[in-house]
Design goal:
The protein is an alpha+beta fold and 217 residues long. It contains eight helices and seven strands, in the order αααββββαββαβααα. Helices cover 29% and strands 24% of the residues. This is Pyridoxamine 5'-phosphate oxidase.
């Protein structure tokens, strides 16, 4: 196994003073845009968003980020200081949920297809099994087992630079998924458990697609 890259000591930034010396002062608008609750536009953004990434940390500081997606409006605004995210069936690793129990600090990034801006929400999360709350988030008659309730500390809109640099929504920059292994092949080859027979791998891929249909909610 190869050794991990090590940052050269002479080029490692060790404090915030060194960091800030590399950049111009923060623009006044970048400071002012940070709010402590959801305004009407932030609420509208969340209601349009079908996808978010949620960042969490374990008690010992191990970081994690997880994608969450559903039809637009799946994250509900309970009030200007509180949002709730349904927990849908996944791989049952429960990394995000376990981290929230250990350390409630969370960061969420809301994304809307076609929008180059993103909405960032930082706050403190709790896990709830309140039947009334969960019933509001049922899909196809299936109620989530729990919900992530986030008390908002900070909310602000990110500018479009990252998405414009990446050309994320530009059809001319779309990549062919077939140029890389399927999820199943990726995992099995990385773990040394991939079958030698192409037909066997195809059946595993088909089985995963069937599982998606059965276990989406």
């Amino acid at each position: 196994m190869s050794e991990a890259y090590a940052v050269k000591p002479d080029h490692r930034l060790r404090d915030e003073r060194q960091l800030r010396s590399l950049f111009e002062p923060t623009h006044d608008l970048a400071v002012a845009k940070c709010q402590t609750q959801l305004g009407v536009h932030a609420q509208a953004f969340i209601k349009r968003s079908p996808f978010l990434c949620i960042g969490t940390q374990s008690a010992d500081g191990r970081a994690d980020v997880s994608p969450r997606g559903d039809p637009a409006g799946f994250v509900q605004v309970l009030d200007p200081k509180t949002i709730v995210v349904p927990d849908r069936p996944g791989n049952n690793r429960l990394d995000t949920l376990s981290n929230i129990i250990a350390n409630p600090a969370v960061g969420l990034l809301f994304i809307i297809p076609g929008f180059d801006d993103t909405l960032r929400v930082n706050g403190r999360a709790q896990l709830s099994t309140d039947p009334e709350l969960l019933a509001r988030m049922a899909v196809n008659g299936k109620v989530p087992k729990l919900a992530i309730v986030v008390a908002i500390d900070e909310v602000f809109l990110h500018c479009a630079k990252a998405f414009r640099r990446s050309h994320l929504w530009d059809p001319d920059h779309r990549q062919d998924r077939r140029e890389m292994p399927s999820l199943m092949q990726f995992i099995l080859e990385e773990t040394g458990a991939a079958p030698d027979n192409v037909d066997d791998m195809r059946k595993l891929d088909e089985g995963l697609e069937q599982a998606y249909v059965k276990s989406m909610y």
